[in-house]
Amino acid sequence: MGSYYWPWARWGRLWDCTALTAAMAFADDVIDAMDYETRHVALDQWHATAEERGAFTLDEQCDQLVKRLARGFGTYLAPTQFERLIGALKEPSYACVEAARRAAEGTDLDSFNAYMELRRDTNGYAFHEMLIEMTLEVDMSGIIGQEPMRGLLAYDAERLTALDGLMTITKGLSEGTDSDNLVFVLAGMRGITSLQEAVDAAFDFAREAEKRYRRQARVVLDSTLGNRDDVRRFVSGLDGALAGLIAVLPQASRYSKPGG
């Protein structure tokens, strides 16, 4: 799996990042297997003590594994980068708490952008981005919050979220009107009643997201940042990781089987 996502990685980093990714994927599967009502109750109970316990995931055994693996990264990452990793590991479960709360209360997000931001966090985009840095052995801590790099990562998150929505359409169909899949959210917000029209709208959005990313990548590479070897490698890594996801994810059960 990891060799598809990060083919440039040295063996040690590849092993560490693949192991951590597998643990986080299992943690996501635990949450994903629950129906909405059960998920809300379980996440609410977990969240009540998660911060004081330093918990990352809902499943206790998986949480201990993630903690042990994360400590290993602390032996070679710079302090600021390691702190970012810890925050990225926490983000998906905490975002799932918010998503489950909204689902239980029947609270709609007030805009499409708000939906995309929440999906970015539940999908673990910050972790995805950290993995690219760690496998490339670069540290973008000093520039990811500044333009034009900040804009590039926003557009990269947008195209990945769009891709995830299209690739999980089978799962979305199994959930029906309860689905938070991109296709059904677009349909609801635009008043689309035809499934084919909704899928077409999602594809159109994905294509436009890719165009926005490409334009911003050019801005980054044409700026003074583009003179830096680590930045050029990182921008190339964003595309490489996306290609790996496209190659691997269709083989996963959650992307190929109803209710998976």
Short description:
With 260 residues, the protein is mostly helical. It is built from 13 helices and no strands.
Architecture overview:
The chain is an all-alpha fold. It has 2 domains: 1-141, no CATH class; 145-260. The chain contains 13 helices and no strands. The chain is globular.
| Span between termini | 19 Å
Number of strands: 0
Tertiary shape: globular
Number of H/I helices: 13
Main β-sheet description: none
Q: How many domains is the backbone divided into?
A: 2
Oligomer: single chain
Approximate helicity band:
over 70%
Roughly how many Å is the radius of gyration? 18 Å
Question: Which helices and strands, and how do they pair?
Answer:
Layout: H1 2-5, H2 11-32, H3 36-53, H4 60-73, H5 79-105, H6 112-122, H7 125-136, H8 149-167, H9 169-175, H10 182-190, H11 195-222, H12 229-248, H13 253-256
Helix pairs in contact: 2-4, 3-5, 5-6, 5-7, 7-12, 8-11, 10-11
Task: Write a concise keyword list for the protein shown above.
260 residues; mainly alpha
